[in-house]
Amino acid sequence: MDLSIVIVNYNTCQLLRACLASLPAAAAGLEYEVWVVDNASQDHSADMVAAEFPAVHLIASKENLGFAKANNLALKRASGRYCLLLNPDTEPKPGALRRMVEYLDAHPDVGAIGPKLLNSDGSLQRNGRPFPSPLRELLGFDVIRKLFSRLLGLKFEFGRDDFDVQWNVDHVSGACIMVPRRVIEEVGMLDEAFFMFYEEVEWCWRIKRAGYRVVYLPQAEVVHHWMGSVKSQYRQMARLLLRSSFIYYRKTASPPVRLLAAVVNVARLVRNEFIYMGVMGKRLLRRLIGKRSGL
């Protein structure tokens, strides 16, 4: 078996259908299997998979296990030489997965690869980044980044800009990441302390510590309908992101860096709450205006 494709789904039935339909062309020429772990969806995703894709191995969980634990559930049963973690809101383009397998076959020193990611409209989505740090987190604030740029006369970037060129990176997006089975056996599966977010970052951190390269491969293209599975739960997702950030720094950073990261994350939490209140306030205002105009 060349490839095991693992998809964790939660209430994204239509996106999952499109994802599964794209796989035969994306993996043409490979011997592959597909595992779908459904995290107790309420939109009949599991029924759709069973009815329309009978060859898919379906694991229907009775509870939401989170991303890491659900993926591990399938990884323990997968038999491919390579394992691909794939989001349900993705559609790999024809030949994409075959190119990823071929690259890993030719480069045994590579422990993980990620493809070029494209938004729904075909525009570029950044993939392949440096590991997180408090400074990069701080520069995530537009005001802070602009202030630093003016004071120091520097342009701060979060990675390279030439996404048509293959290069070594620290980590790739968990939306589509392929890892050799032998590497998983060496470094372990995803850390289940992460419910969602940062799990693939910490995984790549372990893979690089073991001496392997992590590579961005633009010859393989995957459409990622970004946030398709979580955009309706912004506030919950923002809090999960911060929780996972705390876990990541606790595992990978020194005490002073952890403290600085904690301060930055508290600031991010406050910012996210203001953003959420602003969004909800606009919705309420539109409703009030709508009701008044209907009188």
TrEMBL record:
Glycosyltransferase 2-like domain mapped to chain residues: 4-187
SUPFAM superfamilies in UniProt: Nucleotide-diphospho-sugar transferases
Database matches in CDD domains: GT_2_like_c
Pfam families registered for this protein in UniProt: Glycos_transf_2
Keyword list, A-Z: Signal, Transferase
Name of the protein this chain belongs to: Predicted glycosyltransferases
Transmembrane helix as UniProt keyword: no
Taxonomic lineage of the native organism: Bacteria, Bacillati, Armatimonadota, Chthonomonadia, Chthonomonadales
One MF annotation (Gene Ontology) recorded for this entry: transferase activity
Source species: Chthonomonas calidirosea (strain DSM 23976 / ICMP 18418 / T49)
